[in-house]
């Protein structure tokens, strides 16, 4: 783990599957804090099947994840606001 590195992962996360778990573990191993940006129902539109609250709750229960935020804008703006060390 790299000290004091913030890592950001983003996506829809309709259903948490083994691929998601692998990327969350990989991301957490790269830094000291893992933030996951979940695309909002409004922003993701037809590409989400599970309501945003349930998707957020599922990620909050994951031990690799330190913080979950709702993303309601282009990810580039979120990156500029959060200024993570790794995306």
Tell me about this structure:
- The structure is a single chain.
- This protein is of the alpha/beta class.
- It contains 4 helices and 3 strands, in the order βαβααβα.
- The chain has helices at residues 18-30, 41-44, 52-60, 75-82, and strands spanning 6-11, 33-39, 67-71.
- Strands 1-2-3 form a 3-stranded parallel sheet, sandwiched between helices.
- The longest helix is centred in the first third of the chain and has 13 residues, at 18-30.
- 18% of the residues are buried.
Biggest sheet: strand arrangement: 1-2-3
Oligomeric state of this protein: single chain
Question: What's the tally of helices?
Answer: 4
Q: Characterize the main sheet.
A: 3 strands, parallel
Distance between the termini: 15 Å
Shape summary? globular
Spans of 5+ residues with little confidence (pLDDT < 50)? none
Helix residue percentage? 25-40%
How are helices and strands ordered from N to C? EHEHHEH
How many β-strand stretches? 3
Radius of gyration: 12 Å
Mean pLDDT: 94
Q: Could you say which structural class the secondary elements and strand pairing correspond to?
A: alpha/beta
Percent range for β-strand residues: 15-25%
